[in-house]
Amino acid sequence: MTAAIRKTAVWVEETRIEMGKSISPPTRKAVAVAVIANPFAGTYKEDLADLMEIGAELGGMLGEKCVAALGVTPDQAESYGKAAMVGENGELEHAAAILHPKLGAPLRRAVEKGAALVPSSKKMGGPGQVLDVPLGHKDAAYVRSHFDGIEVRLNDAPRANEIMVAVAVTDSGRPLPRVGGLEAKDAVGKDGLK
Length: 194
Known about the structure:
Layout: E1 5-18, E2 21-37, H1 49-70, E3 79-86, H2 92-99, H3 104-110, E4 120-124, E5 131-137, E6 148-152, E7 162-170
Parallel strand pairs: 3-4
Antiparallel strand pairs: 1-2, 2-7, 3-5, 3-7, 5-6
Helix pairs in contact: 1-2, 1-3
């Protein structure tokens, strides 16, 4: 099954000044969203394989849109995250089916490597509600400077029978990081932790 996509949206958030200090180069986060029909809205289905396949389709597509929006090569992406919000006729397990089994591998290809788990969130909501997309370093989960997030909101999504799926990618960590821990430049990225 392929996704029945009603709309997509992509935007980039760029921070140039933080606490009166210039950020050079600016930190940038891209987020890409797809609003899709929920094929299981209003019904209980034991087998969610169709949603898992949709997750694989969206992981690559949305990851590639983020990398393109940042104007970087895939290896220059530093962190990533994913999230989904089901409309009122869906269930949280629908969001989980899209996000967890198969979305990660195509997203990792889009950002080249991705040894670390992809941070994720899921929720139920309606049009205009905020969806938080957590972020973490793509290769080393212990890189604290990349613990972050970005909000997405569409005024008309998700409708009752829809799912809003978001992927975020960054070219850097937070502006002015200073809480210690492993630095991105020192990350090895073999075990997904360090």
